[in-house]
Amino acid sequence: MSQSTISVFQLFERFPDKESARLYLESRLWPNGPTCPECKSGERITTRKGGYYRCNACKLDFTVRTGTIFERSHIPLHKWVYAMYQLVTARKGISSMQLAKEIGVTQKSAWFMLQRLREACSAPDSIEKLRGVVEVDEVFIGGKETNKHKAKKQNLGRGSVGKTPVLGLRNRGGRTIAKPLKRCTLEEVQGTIYANVEPGSQLYTDDHGVYSDLDGLFFRHETVNHTIGEYARGPVSTNSIESVWAVLKRGLHGVYHQVSAKHLRRYVDEFAFRLNDGNVGRHTFERLDSFVSAVAGKRLTYRELTK
Fold first, then answer.
1. Burial level of 88, CB count in 10 A (0-12/13-18/19+)?
2. pLDDT class for 281, splitting at 50, 70, 90?
3. What pLDDT was estimated at residue 200?
4. What does DSSP assign to residue 166?
5. CA-CA distance, 184 to 205, in Å (whole number)?
6. What interhelical angle do 18-29 and 284-293 show, nearest 10?
7. pLDDT tens-digit map of 195-249
8. CA 132 → CA 31, 169, 225, distances in Å?
9. 250-269 burial, b for 16+ CB within 10 Å, e for fewer?
């Protein structure tokens, strides 16, 4: 086994019960001691039994779950830690059916858990822009028109019709940013590039028209012409970002089977997180630490998820 990976047995040795998981989460989310999620103060906190705390400044009773993706969940915290472990170590993800069997909950509860965890995978708006050599490519996610029920067909042709475009940007040897788009237009694509790539960077794309006019004041831009079978020309290629799509598609088709456009953003965030903070080059506990650090302030209710 890789030295950067721990086994499920080793995980259970470290987190055998909900109390050990609670102490771990508190140490990550409150490195300086219990902190009130309402007033952000740790000065006047009273410790109570069972992991409960009271903020005497704003009179709030809270736990480490409050204000996180774990809030108002009845599932024990060590099962949450195991679900996080699975999400950062399973390269193509884990289905709700499989997770339900492994931790002893219903499939509905496991699905809700995984959607909450994917919400934690979303990158903050203040994330640092990509710089240097950046590969950009688009992919279309969704079922084929020919396989859809007659009532759901758009009857507008084939190819990308009825699918959701996802734009990917990958620092060669570095981070990946992937975002679903409403439409694959020049304005949306280039707007996303300008918002996420540092001016002066080198862009590599294919010959799609949405990347026209990028070479100029802000970026240096070169393309490979896929229509004539050109996939690399010296350092110019999009092979790195296309490898991201290969893993994404295998996960969506082989593990999740079907993903609606409504929830696609969270699945894309999951795969991007696994490529970045969940990279296999980092030790499993480091990946878990990064995940736990991302759970605060990202509560997702079942009503919000299903409306």
1. buried
2. confident
3. 94
4. E
5. 15
6. 70
7. 999 999 999 999 999 999 898 889 999 999 988 989 999 999 999 999 999 999 9
8. 34, 12, 22
9. ebbeeebeebeeeebbbbbb
Give the 3-state secondary structure of residue 90. coil
For the domain covering 133-275, report its CATH number: 3.30.420.10
The 10s digit of each residue's pLDDT in 128-182 is: 899 999 999 999 998 665 555 555 555 444 456 678 999 999 999 889 999 999 9
Which residue, 226, 113, 238, is CA-closest to 168?
A: 238
- What global pTM score does this model have? 0.90
Q: Where in the chain is the domain with CATH 3.30.420.10?
A: 133-275
Distance CA 293, CA 278 (A): 12
> How many Å apart are CA 47 and CA 21, to the nearest integer?
18
| Predicted local confidence at residue 145, as pLDDT | 55
pLDDT for res 156:
44
Sign, CA dihedral 177-179-184-186, equals negative
